[in-house]
Design brief:
- By secondary structure, the chain is an alpha/beta fold.
- 43% of the residues lie in helices and 13% in strands.
- The protein contains 14 helices and twelve strands.
- The chain has helices spanning 16-22, 38-58, 71-86, 101-112, 130-136, 159-168, 188-191, 240-255, 257-276, 305-314, 334-338, 343-346, 360-383, 385-399, and strands at residues 4-5, 65-68, 92-96, 116-120, 141-145, 172-176, 195-199, 210-214, 281-283, 294-299, 317-318, 349-353.
- Helix 1 runs antiparallel to helix 8, helix 3 (71-86) runs parallel beside helix 4 (101-112) and helix 9 (257-276) runs parallel beside helix 13.
- Mean pLDDT is 93; it is low at 387-400.
- It binds pyridoxal-5'-phosphate.
Length: 400
Amino acid sequence: MNRIYMDHSATTPVSERALNEMLPYFREEFGNPSAIYSYGQTGKNAIEKCRNRIAKCIGALPTEIYFTSGGTESDNWAIRSVCEMKKDKGKHIISTEIEHNAVKRTLQDLEQQGFEVTYLKPDQRGQISAEQLESAIRDDTILITVMLANNVVGTVLDIPALAAAARKRRILFHTDAVQAVAHIPVNVRKLGVDFLSISAHKFNGPKGVGVLFCRLPNRPKPLLTGGGQEKELRSGTENVPAIVGMTAALEEHMETLEEDITVLTEWGSYMTKKISEIPGVHPTGDQENRLPGFSSFLIEGIPHSVMLMNKLNEQNICVSSGSACSASSKEASHVITALGYDEQMATCSLRITLGMDNTKEEVDYAIGAVQSSINALRSEVKSKAPRLEGRVSEIQGQAK
Ligand code: PLP
């Protein structure tokens, strides 16, 4: 069996359509979009068309779309902009305990600068209620940032309800929609958010490019000064091929979104059901409101996820423990512990995220491989417990 890639929440391959749209902008149409001769103008026109095309995909206005280098930058830009602009009104921010590090570490940095953050604790499914949010709002709250879909357990949060609670109190609302865009319907008006972050490499676009949606009349603070690109807010020569590739990839997903959701939901539920039948394996996240094709588990009797990842890797199956950024970390994921599981239990988590490039045959093969790997590791752990301690560190050394 060839390599089976089932880690689509970490990243995805660039689609053929996206690549084909990108190619001319590397060589034939390489001009600087700020130049006035035709090469430049072709690039400039392509960017503005992309702004329109992306806006259409998410129900925004083109003037509300800013191109960035990806999800991390969009999260940073939105959060830091609001803090800078509203700091005279107050210094209180509300978020959750299950945000991606792009938000979590940004908030920690802001705490160092004197902002105060309330981290809402989700229920075991990963949901936050509007009532919970409302009771955390204070007169000095200036920003609420809650992710749309979680990258470790796949839960889709009720952002329309949470954003409505924020709007009632006239507080700006940001959502990290990196895992959601192109995988579930995302419309900024229906969500009711002021800021929304997007990353292209999660939906078969290139890496290093993304979008920050910023609802008018809000504008982010200038991020980079220089040549004045992106309405003077983010200077730097635009990455035209990447912007074009991201746009093509997003449109491609939008065209088949409904069918893809049906197929991936079916495969994901089947996978979750089959793997959960193994004794001591517990599905994590909200089983009703979740990303299509997203299965996540906690596995008893195996000391660390890395052991399972390696066992599956030997069988050419690429899956992860929850977050690409912390794949080699020994620590339990902050998301899993926030859901109420103890540290010990949280050390062996498994995330399998499917894409339309997978097949049903691969799904069945992976289920079998997970079952046999868990059984094999459990008996190894039982018979060689002391020796395995050393192996965990050894494996982790290799994984870095
Ligand atoms: N937010 C979430 C929920 C993510 O899953 C990721 C990527 O893993 C990011 C933000 C960061 O996006 P990027 O890799 O484009 O910086």
